[in-house]
Amino acid sequence: MTAKERGADAAVMQELRPGQSIELLQELHILTREGKLNQDSRRKLKQVYHLFNFIEPLLQDFSAEGRSPTLADHGAGKSYLGFILYDLYFKALGRGHIYGIETRAELVERSRLLAARLGFGRMSFLNLSVAESMDAAELPAQIDVITALHACDTATDDAIAFGLQKQARAMVLVPCCQAEMAACLRRDKALQLGRTPLAELWRHPLHTRELGSQVTNVLRCLYLEAKGYQVTVTELVGWEHSMKNELIIARYTGQKKRSAAERLVALLREFGLEQSMGPRFGLGTAQPEK
Ligand SMILES: C[S@@+](CC[C@H](N)C(=O)[O-])C[C@H]1O[C@@H](n2cnc3c(N)ncnc32)[C@H](O)[C@@H]1O
What we know:
46% of the residues lie in helices and 13% in strands. The chain has helices at 10-13, 22-27, 39-63, 80-93, 105-118, 130-133, 155-165, 180-187, 189-195, 205-226, 258-270, 274-277, and strands spanning 70-74, 97-101, 123-126, 145-149, 170-174, 229-235, 246-252. Residues 74-77, 80, 101-104, 107, 129-130, 149-152, 155, 158, 176 line the site of S-adenosylmethionine. GO terms for molecular function: methyltransferase activity.
């Protein structure tokens, strides 16, 4: 069957992965009915394929010896990532399960309908926040891979907490905007400016926001290392495509890095964040700085 008959432009076919369902891409509005890619959907597809390159080898490892891999995608949105992972990997594997977790009910309903229409029977969509999904009876006690692609603000932190609770073997995170840390930095700015020259790093509002994101991601990585994950930080796609393109990949090794735990506390202290942000990173009983 030619590309045209399958509903995709021949040039566009070059950009798709072998075995990719054209129908799925059209249903997701990544491909137009004429089989074309517009600028936005090309960017989305490029992002998802790039992530697929990282996630596929993890799934292959976890599928070895007949195991059925499980994956939970947090802040799933329209579930581009989940659907494409299912189409390119889970469908042929014939086992395993993908769970999409999303707060917007209409997106969850749409994904349920689409999965049913395509016969993607091992996909479930839960209309829950990431935090609520921790206790969801529909989810198994252990989940192999956690993904969170541009899940808003603290949803990435909730996804990490979820991953720890579910003893995830890998977490693939692309953090989004981050407001919580910036708010904490802003609140104590005057105090910190008097205490440390470091506070110059967040004196100006634009710097407060950017530094807040940067420090949050650094602390997330240290936290994961302290919990026994090996962490890699790389780019999702080129800067021309997205301002939020930091990709954090964490693989469980069981080796809890004590130095990472110590650095995490030291950094929180250095930034005057021990009390406000400590609980996020497992420091429930943080003492105020002397
Ligand atoms: C920027 S979109 C990204 C969607 C998708 N991951 C993607 O990359 O195409 C963020 C999504 O996360 C959802 N979301 C935000 N906070 C959430 C939370 N705490 N729990 C679950 N979903 C959340 C939003 O409703 C939205 O659909």
